[in-house]
Design a protein that fits this description.
about 240 residues, alpha/beta, six-stranded mixed sheet, four-stranded antiparallel sheet, about 25% strand, globular
């Protein structure tokens, strides 16, 4: 692996007195697409939140592009080039699609919105609609597009396919593949839709009890029903 863009070294983290991550170690290469899967409650979301500075680091190191992030808050980490699309999506319901997207542009000119509309044509059709008027899939598109307009080098996505119909999941995955290929963006996706996540990613990690317990090429793990059944509680086929 090239010099990692992201490294977690023996990370112990959680919320208040509760520890969720127990010695989590992982590396993500530049331009890599990494899937993180596992049963519910094993620490997948907390891993993303620890990278973003939203979960309390009790021990270990989070390093981004060679820089230890220990003393940086979430806003500073975003400025370094880390973007998080949370499971909650966090769309502004009272703002239009276009106003939501403008909030993600930061200091970039308004014409950068064309990048979002090119990736998600459906958002262009809905640009005058309020966030609350969008379907779940459209809200997810908006959340991803808004984060991308900030031009992150590392995109963290937490359950982006949750609750969506199969057709919408495929539409989103096609857009994810397009954004990865066009920009060389590094993506870490946490997802319960195992088949889709492994089809999109290049490499996969399985978590259990707050740590990585299995690592494999995504294509190999996708065909390894025994491991999926044992570690994730599901088989793909």
């Amino acid at each position: 692996m090239d010099r990692p863009l992201l490294e977690l070294h023996d990370v112990v983290a959680g919320y208040g007195p509760i520890t969720v991550l127990n010695g989590l170690t992982l590396r993500v290469a530049p331009s890599e697409r990494l899937a993180v899967i596992g049963r519910n409650g094993v620490g997948k979301t907390t891993a993303l939140r620890a990278v973003m500075g939203l979960a309390r680091l009790q021990r270990g190191r989070v390093v981004f592009d060679g820089e230890d992030l220990a003393d940086l808050g979430p806003h500073q980490r975003a400025q370094r080039g880390i973007g998080l699309v949370p499971q909650t999506r966090d769309v502004f319901p009272s703002l239009t699609v276009e106003e939501n997207l403008l909030a993600g542009c930061k200091r970039r000119p308004r014409r950068c919105l064309d990048e979002a509309y090119d990736l998600f044509p459906r958002l262009k059709e809905r640009r005058g609609n309020g966030g609350a008027q969008l379907s779940g899939g459209e809200q997810q598109m908006l959340a991803v597009a808004r984060t991308l307009l900030g031009q992150p080098r590392l995109l963290l996505m937490d359950e982006p396919l949750e609750g969506l119909a199969p057709m919408l999941r495929q539409e989103l995955l096609a857009a994810f593949a397009k954004m990865s290929g066009a920009s060389g963006l590094t993506v870490v996706i946490v997802e319960q839709q195992v088949q889709e996540a492994l089809g999109y990613a290049e490499r996969a990690l399985v978590m259990a009890r707050g740590a990585v317990v299995h690592e494999a090429a995504a294509s190999a793990l996708r065909d390894d029903n025994a491991t999926l059944e044992r570690l994730v509680g599901m088989a793909v086929h």
